[in-house]
Amino acid sequence: NEDGTMGLLMGMMSPQARSGVLYGPAHGAFSGPAVPNETFQPYEKDPMSMEKLWKASEEAVGVKFDV
Questions:
Q1: Could you read off the pLDDT of 18-34 as tens digits, one per residue?
Q2: Which of 15, 16, 45, 47 is deepest in the core (most CB within 10 A)?
Q3: pTM higher than 0.90, yes or no?
């Protein structure tokens, strides 16, 4: 079993990591090797949901990020 940080590490550090791809255990499992997971739930690509999450994150840390 891999630990829960492997998907994050793979996405941040692997030269093979691709932009826009989530890495984690296969088939939505809770453990296992980090693999590309290119299936998304509708809310994960919804622009309104992304904006709400971005704003909530800024409020939570008290910093506004201009991207």
A1: 988 888 888 777 788 88
A2: 45
A3: no
